[in-house]
Every structure is written in C-alpha cells, then in structure tokens.
Amino acid sequence: MAFSELISIRPLCATDPALLENLLTVFGAAFGDADTYNSQHPSRDYLERLLASPYFIALVALEQGIVIGGLAAYELQKFEQERSEIYIYDLAVAATHRRMGIATALINELQKMAVSRNAYALFVQADIEDAPAIALYSKLGRREEVLHFDIAVPQNSPTDS
After folding, report:
1. Whose CB has fewer CB within 10 Å in the chain, the N or C terminal residue?
2. Residue 55, SS3 per DSSP
3. Sign of CA dihedral 136, 138, 144, 145
4. pTM of the predicted structure, to 2 decimals
C-alpha cells in the first residue's frame, strides 16, 4: 500500500493533549503494552506542559483527524558544542496502516525539525527481536552495536525523610 493523500503528519503543541492521549493508545496497542500506555494517563495540565516544553517533540500521523501513528522524541542539548541530538523514544503505526511509509514519513518530518533545532543526529533504539523496526532504521541510518543498561533509581517511601 502507498502513503495516502488522506494522511497528514504534524507536530503536536500545548493545545493538543487529547491527540497525545490518542497516540498513547496507538503505542499501547502497537507495543502490546496497553497497561503502561493507557492505565494511568498523565493529567491534562502535565501533557500541556510537556507539549509546550522545548525538549519534547511529538509528531502524529492523522487520517481524517484520527491518530494512526506517531513518535515521541527528546532533544538533548549537548555540552561539548552548541548543538543537540534528538532521541526517538517511541515510534509506532497502527497495525491497519503499516507498510504504507508512515513511519518513514514521521522520521523525515523529524529530520526537518532537527535542522531548525541545530541537531546533528537523530538516534533510536530497537529491540533485537523487532525485525520490522530494525529493517526500517537500517534503511534510514547506520547501525551501531551497543549495550543498553537500566539503572534503578531508589524510590522514596512515605516514611523516608
């Protein structure tokens, strides 16, 4: 299938928390993790602040006003030079709209935004078993073999002071 003229890609702004909530639903379904993405949505105020922040980027793919895909990314300001990198945190397209070029269009739009933000690189991680994601990212960029580590943050309990 080809990318349809009925599909548009656009960035979200502070007035779009409902679209970001819809994107969370798409992410939950695409990643098979509805609990993480849909059980405790942030407040509308939180989403408005996040969407207004200079470091968070959300793009959605819309078909007749319905969110069918999107990405969430973070701009990381560098300290060694006056430039930044953009990390694609999540990217997904609804199962009914895959293999139409939507994910590529989302990344292409992010590349355009990166230029205006003086970013020198976009980067993304993919799970080793996620062959479609690896194929997409391999087509668009250079693959690096790295290790990823999650380091726990101690949680404060109500009795900690």
Report:
1. C
2. coil
3. positive
4. 0.86
Confidence of residue 154 (pLDDT cuts 50, 70, 90): very high
Q: Give the number of other CB atoms < 10 A from CB of residue 21.
A: 16
**R_g of the chain, CA atoms, integer Å:** 17
Rounded CA separation 144/137 (Å): 11
Q: Please tell me the distance from the alpha carbon of residue 158 to that of residue 44, in angstroms, as a whole number.
A: 26
Closest CA to 74 of 86, 90, 65: 86
pLDDT, tens digit, 9 for 90 and up, residues 18-47: 999 999 999 999 999 999 998 988 999 999
Which overall architecture, per CATH, does domain 7-140 show? Answer: 3-Layer(aba) Sandwich (3.40)
